[in-house]
Amino acid sequence: MSAGTASPGLVVTATDPSRSFLSSAATSPDLSADLRDLAYALSSEPSVPYRSIRAIWCADSSPGRPPLRQLLQGAQFVLSSPKPREKSDELKARLEKLREMQERREYAELVKDVAPKEDNTEPFSSYKDQLGFGLHVVVIMFTGYLVGMAAFRALFSNSPVMNAAGGILGVVGGMLMETVLFIIRSSSKELSPVPRSSSKELSSPVPRSKKLQ
User: Fold this and answer.
1) pTM of the model
2) DSSP β-bridge partners for residue 49
């Protein structure tokens, strides 16, 4: 009986001839005890597995056994809906991450006209900025060298060694000045206040709609 009900396979609705045959097979001495118990259990069911009723029909050797086609005449197939697939933990985590990303995107779209825009541009993020800064540094070094050499020439006459030392000090002084200016510019950009237009939009009350008269 357990072998017949473990994997039913194709299932059909029970008809009057199939119920009558199963009732008579439940008391047939030609069948084994397992098949008689199976026939007795299926005789009161609204649907029966085709494999089970065929096994009982093949084992029954009585002369009054009806044809198998007669037992299944008028029967309909019973289709069972498949079980829903369970989502794996990895898929659940991925779906949760996608849901959070979608919520953040919707929130950013909702407040884009109210919240101030953040300036995420980094210094030297483009090739043009890098090239411009490099040329600027070269100009500062050249200017510092000329200024230092001219100052030391005025102080120490025409000494080539002192003139070169003055040029080197001028280059170092120009680089130090450029470094200080770069730090000041970066700090002022980070500490720049929120634009007034954005603060006004945030503080301005929402206009109330007029009542319909």
Assistant:
1) 0.37
2) 11
